[in-house]
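Q: My hope is that you can spare some time for a protein that puzzles me. Underneath my words sits a plain record pairing an amino acid chain with its backbone structure tokens. Those tokens are not coordinates but codes from a learned vocabulary of shapes. Thank you; the sequence and its tokens follow:
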Amino acid sequence: MDMANQARIKETAEKFGSDKVVVILGGAEAESAGLTAETVINGDPTYAGPLTNIALKLPVYHIFEIKDLIDPEVYDAQISMMEMVL
């Protein structure tokens, strides 16, 4: 996860509280998704970004895990094409 996104997530968690922030991933690359999840849960494993030594313990889901919670029309319009690709 790049430093700008780490900073954005850190600021959001500080502003709204970690208990009110959920991270939703959408990429196809499992390793990248795993590193992103690790970063927002336990802190930056590379010790280079704003989340170094900061364990936000945010819940993380892939978009496909929460498909049933999304309005079907919104899902079809915004996500379904990528689902076919992934």
